[in-house]
Amino acid sequence: HVQLVESGGGSVQAGGSLRLSCAASGITITSHMGWFRQAPGKEREWVASLNTADSSTNYADSVKGRFTISQDNAKTTLYLQMNSLKPEDTAMYYCAAATPRAGLRWDRREDYDYWGQGTQVTVS
């Protein structure tokens, strides 16, 4: 039984920081882990991703230099450190996991197999 459980969301003032966590269980092999977000009335968009084999990372331009994605040594928890938060970062944030496949794109939500329930981030 695969589970991804996010935590760490909340309300913060602009310029503040939050650290999101995603606890993963029941997944034996992953290719990438990622964070996506969805604001009201908007499409779910990719934020950042991490290659679980070599820990290489990629970021959307809108968060580059402000957000950092990482995983713990046991590779059971994914993090998103968010600094210099802006009101436009307000969204529900989702953790996702992708299993290995040919042609996988780490920024394409359709390539992720498992999703968490989301955690709300509000920046005012």
List keywords for this structure.
single chain, 124 residues, mainly beta, 4-stranded antiparallel β-sheet, globular
Give the overall average pLDDT. Answer: 95
What is the makeup of the main sheet?
7 strands, mixed
Distance between the termini: 37 Å
Oligomeric nature of the chains: single chain
Any idea what the radius of gyration is?
A: 13 Å
SSE topology string = EEEEEEEEEEE
Strand residue content: over 45%
Structural class: mainly beta
Regions with little confidence, pLDDT below 50 for 5+ residues? none
**Number of beta-strand segments:** 11
So what's the overall shape?
A: globular
Helix content range of the residues, please?
Answer: under 10%
Q: Helix count, per DSSP?
A: 0
Question: What can you tell me about this protein's structure?
Answer:
By secondary structure, this protein is mostly beta strands. Helices cover 0% and strands 48% of the residues. It is built from no helices and eleven strands. It has strands at 3-7, 10-12, 18-25, 32-38, 45-51, 57-59, 67-71, 77-82, 91-98, 114-115, 119-123. Strands 2, 4, 5, 6, 9, 10 and 11 form a seven-stranded mixed beta sheet that branches. A four-stranded antiparallel beta sheet has the order 1-3-8-7, with no helix packed on it. Strand 7 (67-71) and strand 8 form a beta hairpin. The protein is globular and about 40 Å long. It starts with a strand and ends with a strand. The model has no long low-confidence stretch (mean pLDDT 95).
